[in-house]
From TrEMBL, chain A:
Stored Pfam families: Response_reg
Residues with the 4-aspartylphosphate modification: 58
GO biological process: phosphorelay signal transduction system
The protein's name in its UniProt record: Response regulator
Superkingdom, natural source: Bacteria
Response regulatory domain sequence ranges: 9-125
Record keyword Phosphoprotein present: yes
Sorted UniProt keywords: Phosphoprotein
InterPro entries, per database record: Bact_response_regulator, CheY-like_superfamily, Sig_transdc_resp-reg_receiver
PROSITE patterns hit by this protein: RESPONSE_REGULATORY
Gene3D superfamilies to which the protein is assigned, alphabetical: 3.40.50.2300
Automatic annotation (TrEMBL), chain B:
Protein name as annotated: protein-glutamate O-methyltransferase
Keyword Amino-acid biosynthesis listed: no
Swiss-Prot/TrEMBL keywords: Methyltransferase, S-adenosyl-L-methionine, Transferase
Domain CheR-type methyltransferase: 1-275
Amino acid sequence: MTAPAGQGTCLVVDDSRVVRKAARRILEGLGFQVREAGDGAEALAACRAEMPRAVLLDRNMPVMDGIAFLRAARAEFGPDRPVVVLCTTEAAMERIVEALEAGAQEYVMKPFDAALLQDKLIQAGLLPDPAA
Amino acid sequence: MTPRSFAFIAALVKSRSGLVLAAEQGYMLETRLGPILKREGLADFEALAERLQGPGGHRLAEAVTEALTTNESSFFRDGRPFEHLRRLLPGLAAARGAGMPLRLWSAACSTGQEAYSIAMILAELAPQLGGCRADILGTDISQAVVTRARQGRFSQFEVQRGLPARLLVRHFRQEEGRWQVAPDLREMIRFERWNLLADLRPLGRFDVIFCRNVLIYFDAPTKARVLEAMAAQLAPDGVLYLGGAETVLGLTDRLVALPGERGAYRRAGMAALAG
């Protein structure tokens, strides 16, 4: 995997430090600068402080969950930014539909690996398609 | 690899999976089985053939079969040909009219992702196709993958490779942890076992042929033969898509690249209408 710089900032939102660390390693390998938040409320504050290009968003978190963050972010910042990719163990169809309707650009069902995450970031328009 | 080892492994894989390994696929065999040799600490394919006949050979035979029949495939693999197809289809549909269905062929379709991707594009473009019907044919040499392709059931991992979430929720249903392609999409596709080295004429005429990342496993005379046989089945204004690492150059003059497009070809001597 090449490590092109300058893909912008990705905010990783997950209440698990282990998951944040794993995601950070993959995203930095793909050329993103990574910031972290432990729940939706922290993520919202981070967006207000400095808007990231992308948010990799866990669903089930204390304080404010992923969907509540997503709805708040869309209400406050509009439909296009930040680009939000859900990343969750919730794999039921209605959960995916709910996230897309709430304004998520893409949806990753855990477990994920570097190749899968890269693929989804390409689909979300956050990375160039290597084939194009 | 000695002919004897090859024959033994080929017979074993055929008996287990139905996959027919032709002699010209020796290179593919070596490429795909290389990691197993390394993992098992085997020096060469003779040692592998020997181990397969010994105690514990059953488990190893499963791994060998799996390595040879698990064909790398993903939805919308290498997006470029699908983008070209989106631009191509409205013109083709207008040329055919409502009475004549478009015929599209996913050659060496593996577990069906390519054929289902084509079907999703057709569903998306239906309003622009003026009622022109479309039939998709998916073929593969392996009965095992054709059966899987027909079922249209994919794992959570498979539906995340190349497939945007909005298309997943539109075209799939969730069943017991697997993802099932919806009936309207499945009805557009017929999957059949077919060997690309066999006579292709019974398959009929096609407006679009996808044959990607298949020729790389053939030697030059075989590539030329398959390309010319496919050219003969391609409509005058039809398009053949090859994989990113494949070309017709030096193999046949019956196909020419579409100007400015990588991996898209039309029949030689035809007006450049396509694309």
